[in-house]
């Protein structure tokens, strides 16, 4: 009987626990589920160009100071001191690093002693030549003795000149144990530490200066570099400073390709912006010359990667409209040249369209433009 009572109490306890759990689950399920707002998809865009206008190409680049140099010692030796570090400001002529100069002091002392010895020998040769000249004038000396004195004087003069040159070289080598700043600027790189042994010409420090302004380095594919004019006016964006467009000028076009057959191109910035630093990322917007045989006339130029074809082979692009919502624009493809197509349709030069991957977004979708707004990291 007692056993049955215990079993009955246990069943009642389990029923209470089950009812409590069901009630709690009902309370939890009555709350609305949390919703998470989807972030707009990031798309790469480009601007629509007139078919008979210059082609625009956007490339990545890097800002650097126009005046920059890598400093090195002109003599070999052990580094004694490095007096500056990366980020330090230096003045013109300031000593930045030194070598152990004991060996060069000894060499200078030896060269100085040789010069003094050669000077004494020259003075003695001059006196002997003067005596032989006086004797020859009074008829007591022979011509052969005068000729020997003259030759000895010339030889002593040459030895003295060589000794002076050796002393100057030793003096210069001694002075080269101090590495000095060639101009006022900032240390951008430090390659050695004290007690290291360096050879002549080995990089020790890199110094930059903004007194000559800044420039942007980029690389242009081999298929486009011939269409870039030297000294042509271009535009550069600095995303870190929020600068959309600033004027620049093609300063140098490299004659030797870098990796992947890209040629180095340097653009000089027309102005210096507050906060601009060497090493910042830049976007270079290049206006390319028309290629030979390019189509002319009405229409617009868009990248081939921006075109989407539906089931009827109707081509369209996705235009960025109000609030960054995508709008479908049907087009007629007139011609294709290189990586671009000439199209006709209700477009306007300067409008933004999806440049790559339009098949992954849809009409009416709100997007975020690559390079604009805060970056998102996943």
Structure overview:
- The protein contains 3 helices and 21 strands.
- The chain is of the alpha+beta class and 378 residues long.
- The strands form 4 sheets. It has a 6-stranded antiparallel β-sheet, with no helix packed on it. Strands 3-10-13-12-11-14 form a 6-stranded antiparallel barrel.
- Strand 18 (326-337) and strand 19 (340-344) form a beta hairpin.
- Helix 2 (102-137) runs antiparallel to helix 3 (143-175).
- The longest helix has 36 residues, at 102-137.
- Mean pLDDT is 85; it is low at 1-8 and 374-378.
The helicity comes to 25-40%
Shape: elongated
Radius of gyration: 40 Å
- Assess the beta-strand content as a share of residues: 35-45%
Largest sheet: 6 strands, antiparallel
Count of discrete alpha- or pi-helical segments spanning 4 or more residues: 3
Number of strands: 21
| N- and C-termini, Cα separation | 66 Å
Fold topology:
Blueprint: H1 2-29, E1 41-47, E2 49-50, E3 55-72, E4 77-82, E5 89-90, E6 95-99, H2 102-137, H3 143-175, E7 178-180, E8 185-190, E9 197-198, E10 203-221, E11 233-238, E12 243-253, E13 262-269, E14 281-288, E15 300-303, E16 308-309, E17 315-320, E18 326-337, E19 340-344, E20 352-356, E21 367-369
Parallel strand pairs: 1-21
Antiparallel strand pairs: 1-20, 2-15, 3-10, 3-14, 4-6, 4-9, 5-8, 6-7, 8-10, 10-13, 11-12, 11-14, 12-13, 15-19, 16-17, 17-18, 18-19
């Amino acid at each position: 009987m007692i056993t049955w009572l215990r079993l009955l109490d246990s069943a009642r306890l389990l029923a209470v626990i089950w009812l409590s759990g069901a009630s709690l689950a009902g309370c939890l399920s009555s709350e609305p589920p949390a919703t998470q707002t989807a972030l707009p998809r990031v798309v790469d865009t480009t601007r629509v160009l007139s078919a008979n206008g210059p082609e625009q190409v956007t490339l990545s680049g890097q800002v650097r100071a126009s005046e920059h140099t890598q400093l090195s010692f002109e003599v070999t030796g052990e580094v004694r001191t490095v007096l500056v570090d990366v980020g330090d400001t230096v003045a013109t002529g300031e000593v930045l690093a030194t070598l152990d100069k004991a060996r060069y002091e000894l060499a200078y002392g030896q060269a100085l002693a040789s010069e003094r010895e050669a000077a004494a020998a020259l003075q003695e040769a001059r006196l002997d030549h003067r005596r032989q000249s006086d004797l020859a004038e009074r008829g007591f000396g022979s011509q052969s003795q005068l000729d020997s004195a003259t030759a000895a004087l010339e030889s002593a003069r040459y030895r003295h000149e060589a000794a002076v040159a050796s002393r100057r070289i030793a003096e210069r080598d001694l002075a080269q144990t101090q590495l000095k700043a060639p101009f006022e600027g900032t240390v951008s790189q430090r390659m050695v530490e004290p007690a290291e042994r360096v050879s002549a010409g080995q990089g020790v420090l890199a110094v930059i200066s903004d007194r000559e302004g800044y420039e942007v380095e980029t690389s242009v594919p081999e298929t486009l570099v011939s269409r870039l004019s030297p000294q042509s006016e271009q535009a550069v964006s600095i995303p870190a400073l929020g600068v959309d467009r600033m004027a620049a000028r093609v300063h140098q076009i490299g004659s030797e390709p870098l990796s992947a057959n890209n040629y180095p191109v340097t653009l000089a910035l027309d102005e210096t912006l507050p906060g601009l630093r060497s090493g910042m990322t830049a976007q270079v917007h290049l206006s390319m010359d028309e290629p030979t045989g390019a189509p002319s006339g009405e229409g617009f130029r868009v990248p081939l990667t921006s075109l989407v074809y539906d089931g009827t082979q109707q081509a369209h692009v996705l235009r960025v409209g109000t609030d960054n919502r995508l709008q479908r624009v049907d087009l007629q493809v007139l011609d294709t040249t290189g990586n671009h197509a000439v199209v006709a349709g209700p477009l306007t030069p300067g409008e933004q369209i999806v440049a790559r991957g339009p098949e992954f977004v849809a009409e009416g979708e709100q997007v975020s433009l690559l390079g604009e707004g805060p970056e998102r990291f996943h």
